[in-house]
């Protein structure tokens, strides 16, 4: 049963704002340059410095030329002006996801997709059905299986797939992308045997008694097999990006930071931009190849120069510093509670990481770190600190994503070092990953610092949000709700995970708008509804400030504009 909605507060807020001394924003126009589009009779949440509200706005040539009252909008009407009556609907800036995988996620959606399935029986059915429906495929590829289905460590057995598909190689990645599940033929084709040594950045899972291959590969061990898999075609990448763009625009997302990009992904973006199909602003995180050294810097610089365009900016370098807590590869300050007493696997040696970040910073690259464990977070912060010591403060807006566990001694360092905390808030609730695969191996004391969003905010740090789709939904309203409730957004209403780390709605919206725009170096052009900025806007079916918190996840987008052009519509005239 839905809870009753709160009384209409926004109308009062709008009236209070409009009656205040501040003047509506506008620019001078003459009668020949009236607005292309006017939206009025709305509850427009501007996310400007005052987080003020307005009733109306006007758009000309893709940019906002007026924000203010319904009365003031009359000056911007012309014979050809399109007028939209918002019917008191809420308008907010187009949202920005600062950690997402749109191309690979789109490709996965067209492959053997196990996302959303909950047990081995369902996996069996999906794998078998996909293989039977695609008899001509050389490899059966896909993913989305959950580590929690296979117990501690997440080690699915090759024999399960062998029973279903034995004549073709099969390789399926986990929902988080950090583990792979292969059948026997795939392992054989890759030359992986029980004598194959573990790579320095990964684990080949083996039966503890016989040493035989289980069939699961953790982290860098996946590359031993992946190099034998046929590369995705440009056609599949283009189709994957088109799929993702349509989905993201439907969620009100107009800018992203693609978290792993190589040249073929840049070519994909270039193709769609050249066809005037790209409806996202894209900051591309160029992948740091950890098997290489500083010699790759020149190629990164060449890619930045070659592929920088109006909508695509390959100005960021992604460094993966650790793995996952669930497979004991996330780097911790103190050991896991497992027999090996492991502290995880640092993907880049910490002292070398300092050199890498210092060089990248000097070349004015933003660094986008992957760090889940408190040890990896500390190593990332240490590297930024070293870059400041060597280069001074260059303002490159480095950010650390995931941040599942942060040592309290490091809370204040985000502010001190100007590092943005890039959380994936949908993960901050008690599910089987937390209860069964994390808590027993971290212990009660460290569990107090899981996804400490409010603690970082209270320490003065900037908070931004991203989804890490395809790992979890890109729906920002699900993520906002969990950030506020610390519970699941689709009915998982167990005890909140550290309710003291919840944030308010204003913070959650900022994290997807103006703060995310800051991370993307776009805050002068997007992230708020202000005169002069691009008209990247979203109209919602309900006002987020007028409803119960547990209803936020039910919010639907009615209209998305990208530079004033409609890129998604659902029932608004």
Model description:
With 573 residues, the chain is an alpha/beta fold. The protein contains 18 helices and 25 strands. The strands form four sheets. An eight-stranded parallel β-sheet has the order 9-16-17-18-19-20-21-22.
Helices, strands, pairings?
Elements lengths: L9 H10 L5 E2 L10 E4 L2 E3 L7 E2 L1 E5 L2 E6 L13 E4 L4 E4 L1 E6 L1 H8 L2 E2 L6 H14 L6 E6 L12 H5 L7 E5 L4 E4 L1 H6 L12 E5 L6 E7 L3 H4 L7 H17 L2 E9 L1 H12 L6 E7 L9 H11 L4 E9 L29 H13 L3 E6 L2 H18 L7 E4 L10 H4 L3 E4 L8 H6 L1 H4 L10 H6 L4 E3 L10 H10 L19 H8 L1 H6 L17 E4 L16 E6 L2 E5 L4
Helix pairs in contact: 2-7, 7-8, 10-11, 16-17
Compose a concise summary of this entry.
By secondary structure, the chain is of the alpha/beta class.
**Which CATH class of the largest domain is shown?**
Alpha Beta
Counting structural domains, the number is 3
Tell me, rounded to a whole number, the average pLDDT. 93
Give the second-level CATH assignment, the architecture of the largest domain. Answer: Alpha-Beta Barrel
Strand order of the largest sheet: 9-16-17-18-19-20-21-22
Oligomer: single chain
**Fold-level CATH name of the largest domain:** TIM Barrel
Q: Bin the strand percentage.
A: 15-25%
* Helix percentage: 25-40%
Task: Give the biggest sheet.
Answer: 8 strands, parallel
Radius of gyration, rounded?
24 Å
Structural class based on helices, strands and sheet pairing = alpha/beta
Task: Report the count of strand segments.
Answer: 25
Number of helices: 18
CATH superfamily of the largest domain, by name, is Metal-dependent hydrolases
Shape: globular
Report, as a whole number of angstroms, the end-to-end distance: 31 Å
Unreliable segments (pLDDT under 50, ≥5 consecutive)?
Answer: 1-22
